[in-house]
Known about the structure:
There is one protein chain. This protein is an all-alpha fold and 184 residues long. It has a single domain, classed as Endonuclease III, domain 1 (Orthogonal Bundle), CATH 1.10.340. Helix content is 54%, strand content 2%. A two-stranded parallel ribbon has the order 1-2. The mean pLDDT is 95.
Amino acid sequence: MSKQQRCAWAESDPLLRDYHDQEWGVPQYESQALWELLMLEGFQAGLAWITVLRKREAFREAFRHFDPEKVAAFKTADVNRLLSNPGIIRSRAKIEATIQGARIFEEMRSSNEDFSQFAWKLAGGKPIKNKTGQMPAKTALSEEISAALKKRGFKFVGPVIVYAWMQASGMVNDHDPRCFRRNV
């Protein structure tokens, strides 16, 4: 029996394989889940994604399952609690950016603006299939989306982070042309 071919980046660790096989590149349309992915991508800045994956459950617990309403209400005591939590990436700037991101998400929701519709509209409304087989670090579109997110007040949303978010959330299909997930 032949082994399933997957993207090379996912071969080195069982956690990466599971993430690749079940989540990465699957179009995500649920607003809270999209926001969670964006926040986790921000925590990944400067680190390997496997670091975030290994800490994801601790992040979910620490950030109240990424419920934007709860995170938006975090105060200084919550920031201090998070800074002392060894289960997550303890960066004050990233923690504060996540709280700010929750407040922006809630402002959008209170204005009847859906985060998923906002994000997918920026991405063109449907998944983009990368035809080259090459994975860029950023694209003109990720630069545009980054600028739109920054204009809203989001932090840790540079074009490279945004492109990784677009890949993770299925806005772009960057599976290797030989990967079994390419056409799923």
